[in-house]
User: Fold this.
Amino acid sequence: MIDQLIERYPVLAHCSGAILKAYEILATSFSNGGTLLLAGNGGSAADAEHICAELMKGFRKKRPLAEEEKKALVGADPNMGKILSGKLQGALPAIALSSDSPLASAYANDCDPLLAYAQQVNGYGRSGDVFFAISTSGESRNILFAAVTAKARGMKVIALTGNRDSSLSRLADVCIKVPQAETYLVQELHLPVYHCLCNMLEEKFFAE
Assistant:
């Protein structure tokens, strides 16, 4: 799938090693029952929510439930369980931190706006989980505070940035640095990168 990505976007060729390492970190975490936390600002917040959506439901596959899961649903309630067992899909647990605006705004008002993501990582994150940090510059202070919190909690940090060396790239366990510097051009290359990761993870965990 990385080869297919590079065929469509040759400019991303130098990112292939980092993409593979990011995939391995994510696959290991999900295999061990981990959760993925994602955060960004502006368009990158939208990207974080986009990734979450691709992982929490079918991306390219239907992801039917296993028979034991279906039986458990029917056992809980025969009528509703039958509907649920036919409609629910397999999911990889992911939380986009930007989607919790009541918590973020309360913490920003009561404490410190720059630490709202860090507070969520502190509350949700566990050792073995992954924090996926998206920042076109790699210098977004709220993302950096969240990344430091994640590392302190024993989480792995994956960064998705532009081409510059940055504070975030130095904090991260792996940094995918796409070869652009201007914000909108960086974001145009972020999407195919994370779609590739989602595709690879779905193939691993939901092979038909």
Notes: The first strand starts at residue 36 and ends at 39. The two ends are 17 Å apart (CA to CA). Residues 183-205 form the longest helix (23 residues).
